Sequence to fold (310 residues):
Amino acid sequence: MLTIGVDIGGTKVAAGVVDDNGEIVEHTLRPTAADQPDVVAETVADVVRELSRGRDVEAVGVGAAGFVDETRSVVRFAPNLAWREEPLQKKISDLVGLPVVIENDANAMAWGETRFGAGRGQSHVVCLTLGTGIGGGIVIDGALYRGRWGMGAELGHMQVVPDGRVCGCGNIGCWEQYASGQALVKEAREIAARQPERAEILLGLAGGRIEGEEVTEAARLGDKVSLAAFRSLADWLGQGMADLAAVLDPGCFIVGGGVSRAADLFLDEAREVFARQLTGHGHRPLAEIRLAELGASAGVVGAADLARRR
Ligand SMILES: [Zn+2]
Fold:
């Protein structure tokens, strides 16, 4: 059976026709009109028409970067798109004439990785997508955990530092301000401002504007401040996973997102912090911490599979 998975992010709409094995048969990409909800729905309808031409497509799954309600049809709010109480499921299904399932984008990614990526065969999974923020997805007993109102697994917004950095969600000191790509850059900028003599390589590469790529490259060249920023990320990540394991006791964590491309600079250290900080450590099995395998297509593959199982 073929279904279409669509991943609506703040800047682009990615979509693919996906078969039963989670393989993408054909793929397409469009820019997102983030400030125009009707145009976003039209864009989704347009990619669905394009991808279903000459094919028998059964349903459409949509991963949306926002708070999706418990009926999986309305996006209540989105930080980076103009969705407020947006009836996305109805709009798209009216346009394409196919069954449509809406899911939070991080949940769709977690589901894709669990079914067809790094979490294959696992029944209890916590997926962390480290990008600008932290996207979270939780699989319990082989099913996505959504919470009572569909708003569960916003793992990046647990407060870890009272009076800490201001978060995009409006709160203070959220985890994603300390263990995401944006956090890495902030940390490097802060330390470099205090101790420029330890950041010679980084400042030389960045030419005044420090971004994630420069921090990664400088760390690989031995820049002390960049390495310290990665150590900070590893500490916060490992501690956060230990806290999540105290609540959820997963069999595995999956770490993905853009930052995971630099996993060689932080993941082993995060594993050590996790093992050390885990409550009851030494008397319980250690959850595996795995790198995501599907990259940017996890959301498309996951949304398509959720549509198949609707
Ligand atoms: Zn927050």
About this structure: The chain has two domains: 2-111+297-308, 122-292.
